[in-house]
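Milestone M4 deliverable, item 7.
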Amino acid sequence: MAVGVVALAGAALAACGNNSSNSSSGTKKTLNWMDKTEIEGMDLSKVTDATSFTQLNNTMEGLYRLGKNSKVEPGLATKTTTSNDGKTWTFTLRNNDKWSNGDLVTAQDFVYSWRRTVDPSTGSQYSYLFSGVKNADAIVAGKKKPNTLGVKAEGKDKLVVTLDKRIPYFKLLMGFPLFFPQNQKAVEQYGKSYGTSSKTTVYNGPFIQKGWTGSNLSWKLVKNKNYWDKKNIKLDTINFSVQKTPSTDYNLYQSGKLDAALLGPQASKQLKNQKGYTLRKTSSTIYLEMNMKKKPFNNENFRKAISLAIDRKELANSVGGTAEPADTLSPENMTEVNGKDYTDLVRGEATKQFNTYNKKQAQAFWKKAQQELGKKSVNFAILTYDDDASKKAGEYLQSTIESTLKGVNVRVQSIPKKTALNHAGSGNYDVFLMGWTADFSDPISFLDLNTSKNSQNWEKYSDPTYDKLVADSKVTPSETKRWDDLVKAEQRIISTQGVTPLYHPEEAWMVRPSVKNVIYNGAGAPYNFKGAYVAN
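Output delivered:
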């Protein structure tokens, strides 16, 4: 999923800073939390960013929930059976979960949701994740009707899913909000407004959302009285606010108005030995997408020149003391293959040659590009989000590219995340500084993204060799060949600079020691607050 200060007015600060009420169980009922970017939307068929998926993960529920270390835990499914060939899954659902509008959650809500997401008219950029569910690829391509998707309801509490092929990570997918149910009555009632505000969304998860108007930077989650497991929800309220400058959110933390604060580079170094210091490893990569529908970005030598002009260690230091330079597209510590980290298999000549700072080589590729393009100079803009880290990264890239490649002139365009994503999704950009967090703990979550026909392939990278390797990895019955195909695909996209990996974010936070049981997973929808509480 895509990843990336407004100072709050006195009234908003007071709301965030309300003293948490005490409960009889010795815990506080209110948590004050922050996010660094705004909500893109609450329509699970359409969102693409981590902030929105975290909101959906806590206000909605699917067949499973993902607990600590992405462990699959019970959600709406009370029983799961699988056919011997792994292609038919039957889920028995709870009969006591309701939507916030009072409707019973049924198997048909899953059927409706899945069909809506794969329907091309919905415009989901995530519909490709249904690949492997019977007929999904043909439906997404417009060759079959959505009602032919391999999912059906047998009564109110039985859901049957038919696959074209065994999917090794199928259970992990079922814990991702894209595969959660949707209430058809609400979607049709609100039409185009569905999911654009708290009031135009209905919920079936641990919390319901209140106060989000579609663009504001503060809202709250409130305990859902209709949730099937409400007795185990300890918090009454989670107050959220968007904080785009680390110094501001840390000041709010110090004054007691936030229970958690994302730290900037200097603070992360100074506070690393303080109580409450928390390092969160993300299954994320920040990289450059160059719009290959435009010149000079369709020129491979130019893309290589840009990559070689970037000192990733300096860049990582400029955005945060805990960021790690990236020489692979997939992040470390996400996937293990036969006792080895997957990225160790990827590293080789391609990663060393094209993802390592080399001023002379950068200038040599720039000369080749000049000859091929018939130009001595080029001007372009780097599109970034308007948070502090993104702005700093953009400034560093502008400086190093212009100083290394004479004749290349760069400007930085920093705008709100939602607007930036709209620009990128419509191809209205030159170079986009973006991030991707794995939807589940497998490198296919990164590699599938850049295949020619993927709706999220905003840079329009197209390479038949790469496409074939990714496609082959999905159908081979051999695990050994699957990993070999994925490794070769990743080496291929690096050697052609289909995308330019920059760094892997690791976030340093101060989290109040009284905050307990907040589950964070590097992949998927990052935060799970279902069992969270604040001790007295």
